[in-house]
């Protein structure tokens, strides 16, 4: 890109804060907006403009990146008289990196097309450590030439960009990737719980996996501390994976496909959310499994 884009970044949560800061470190001009304004202070200290509304942010930028929690949060920043879309005049670019549903993404792509706005569907694979290190894997949907044009921006936040096809292909691929993450997490949580129930130290489960080249998965190492120390500080909040699992099941149902293991994993996550663990790391499933069932 000969002229670097002026970037507006919306959503400074666990993932978005690190992603936006990596754009700043890469030398991009970044304007930020976050519903909770105190999260913008470090960006102001770094010389970034802090917008008072999504519309003001879109006015100050030619490229807007959204990284928010769900479709309702997307609507809150995109729609209405103070929303991003109200400021678009054609020729702008919207890059959604939030995980929403393929149905929502397809509708947003159509809306952008009608408004003359480039749209990229670019959710990410990876959690807080990868976001902080700039090693996310970015799953890109949209026109290939637009993805290529914005590759430098995307690679400021991630180690790889995987082109999936026209939108909503990026979102569709993200659901497939998160299906694996959900099942890996429930598997290691259940294995640790089963070990404990049999009088074994759950650390032995991790030691066994580490010594087996076929099962020595770095993701298990990431969750080892959570489970053994029962410290579930969020790298990826349980409530967000439950949202994604429900999108997976809706897509499967609409395509007449059964996902029985994902159905069971979603039920396990829903139980943990009902127990008050929605804001904890997904690995908190382990804690919930080792608690007595409600009578």
Describe the structure.
- The protein is α/β, with parallel strands linked by helices and 295 residues long.
- It has 2 domains: 6-167, Rossmann fold, CATH 3.40.50; 173-289, N-(1-d-carboxylethyl)-l-norvaline Dehydrogenase, domain 2 (Orthogonal Bundle), CATH 1.10.1040.
- It has 14 helices and 9 strands.
- The chain has helices at 14-25, 41-45, 54-60, 71-78, 102-115, 128-133, 144-149, 151-155, 169-197, 203-211, 218-229, 238-254, 260-274, 285-289, and strands at residues 6-10, 29-33, 49-50, 63-66, 93-96, 118-121, 124-125, 136-141, 158-165.
- A 6-stranded parallel sheet has the order 3-2-1-4-5-6, with helices on both faces.
- β1, α1 and β2 form a beta-alpha-beta unit.
- The longest helix has 29 residues, at 169-197.
- It is globular.
- It starts with 5 loop residues before the first strand and ends in a 6-residue tail after the last helix.
Helix content: 40-55%
**Rg over CA atoms:** 20 Å
Order of helices and strands: EHEHEHEHEHEEHEHHEHHHHHH
Low-confidence stretches: none
Q: Count the helices. How many?
A: 14
- Please describe the biggest sheet, giving its number of strands, its sense, and whether it closes into a barrel: 6 strands, parallel
* Sequence of strands across the biggest β-sheet: 3-2-1-4-5-6
Number of domains: 2
* CATH fold type of the largest domain: Rossmann fold
Structural class: alpha/beta
- What is the oligomeric state here? single chain
Compute the average pLDDT.
96
Care to count the β-strands?
9
């Amino acid at each position: 890109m000969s002229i670097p884009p002026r970037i507006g970044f919306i959503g400074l949560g666990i993932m978005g804060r690190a992603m936006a800061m990596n754009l700043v470190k890469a030398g991009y001009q970044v304007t930020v907006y976050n519903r909770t304004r105190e999260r913008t202070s470090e960006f102001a200290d770094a010389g970034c403009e802090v917008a008072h509304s999504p519309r003001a942010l879109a006015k100050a930028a030619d490229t807007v990146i959204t990284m928010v929690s769900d479709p309702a949060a997307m609507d809150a920043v995109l729609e209405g008289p103070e929303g991003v879309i109200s400021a678009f005049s054609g020729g702008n670019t919207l890059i959604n990196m939030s995980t929403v549903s393929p149905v929502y993404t397809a509708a947003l792509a159509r809306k952008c097309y009608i408004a003359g706005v480039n749209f990229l569907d670019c959710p990410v694979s990876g959690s807080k450590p990868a976001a902080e290190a700039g090693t996310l894997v970015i799953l890109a949907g949209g026109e290939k030439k637009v993805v290529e044009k914005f590759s430098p921006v995307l690679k400021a936040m991630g180690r790889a960009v995987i082109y999936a096809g026209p939108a909503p292909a990026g979102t569709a691929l993200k659901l497939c990737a998160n299906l694996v993450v959900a099942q890996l997490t429930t598997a290691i949580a259940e294995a640790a719980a089963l070990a404990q129930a049999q009088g074994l130290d759950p650390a032995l489960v991790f030691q066994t996996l580490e010594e087996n080249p076929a099962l020595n998965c770095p993701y298990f190492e990431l969750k080892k501390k959570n489970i053994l120390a029962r410290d579930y500080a969020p790298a990826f909040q349980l409530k967000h994976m439950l949202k994604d699992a429900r999108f997976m099941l809706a897509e499967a149902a609409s395509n007449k496909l059964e996902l029985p293991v994902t159905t069971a994993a979603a039920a396990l996550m829903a139980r943990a959310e009902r127990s008050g663990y929605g804001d904890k790391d997904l690995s908190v499933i382990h804690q919930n499994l080792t608690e007595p069932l409600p009578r």
